[in-house]
Design brief:
Bound molecules: BIS(adenosine)-5'-pentaphosphate
Distance between the termini: 9 Å
Number of helices: 9
Strand content: 5-15%
Oligomer: single chain
Strand order of the largest sheet: 2-3-1-4-8
Length: 222
């Protein structure tokens, strides 16, 4: 099963991708997580991506597309994968379609997590992430058991640099201008599945799994 999670920043892509990965046993690939790990490790890629991420802009395609297309060739992708944060503009979507077509493959579904901007702004203000393992929390909606300490690994929980209110507004503007057009692209391919992601987290996940079904394929296709 090959899935794309679409949606604005803060729609819940990372939250639900992790749960879908656990539920269906397929790998979760987040370009944001890959860039953040490179940034933390001080790699050349991380250093080149840093300024774009901090400004809320997209990292250039030449640093992103080959990275993801190579990642999809790893053995852990054979059973399928969940793409979170990629593709993010029409050029990335076309590159993915072409690379899959060359292997006789295609995406199964583009799950579109739909949330209005005002909800996003409130969510992002409360998001906290573990600086060690990346687990995501919310100060009121999904708090850590011990304030400031990750439930999963015990690491310190902090606010992401790009969750500053003014950067969130930039990221939303970038989403509407550059990423939203690919929703229509996947709709035209018959791949878009609309999910109301303004609901409580459990309801959103229930809708996702109700659509995907127990085996991970809607309607039991294989
Ligand atoms: P990335 O990490 O992909 O950020 P994003 O798309 O902006 O998405 P987020 O991670 O902010 O949000 P999310 O949808 O995963 O929401 P989450 O589950 O955390 O990218 C970061 C940067 O990297 C980009 O700005 C860009 O610079 C670069 N980049 C990445 N990919 C790129 C690409 N392909 N091309 C170019 N550049 C790229 O949830 C958010 C919060 O809300 C959490 O606190 C959560 O607990 C809470 N929450 C979630 N769902 C609910 C709910 N239903 N109800 C209440 N609270 C909820």
């Amino acid at each position: 099963m090959k899935l794309i999670l679409l949606g604005p920043p803060g729609a819940g892509k990372g939250t639900h991708a992790k749960k879908l990965s656990d539920t269906y046993g397929i790998v979760h690939i987040s370009t944001g997580d890959i860039f953040r790990a490179n940034l933390k490790n001080g790699t050349e890629l991380g250093l080149r991506a840093k300024a774009y991420m901090e400004a809320g802009a997209l990292v250039p395609d030449e640093l992103t597309v080959d990275l993801v297309l190579d990642r999809l060739t790893w053995p852990d992708c054979e059973k399928g994968y969940i793409l979170d944060g990629f593709p993010r503009n029409p050029a990335q979507a076309e590159a993915l379609t072409k690379a899959l077509e060359a292997k006789g493959e295609e995406i199964d579904y583009a799950l579109n997590l739909m949330v209005d901007d005002d909800v996003i702004v409130r969510r992002m203000a409360g998001r906290r992430v573990c600086s060690v393992c990346g687990a995501s929390y919310h100060v009121t909606g999904a708090p850590t058991k011990v304030p400031g300490i990750c439930d999963r690994c015990g690491g310190p929980v902090v606010q992401r640099a790009d969750d500053a209110p003014e950067t969130v507004l930039t990221r939303l503007a970038v989403y509407h201008e550059q990423t939203e057009p690919i929703v229509a692209y996947y709709r035209a391919l018959g791949k878009e599945v609309q999910i109301d992601a303004a609901q409580p987290m459990d309801r959103v996940f229930a809708d996702l799994t109700a659509f995907l079904g127990e085996e991970g394929f809607h309607g039991g296709n294989d």
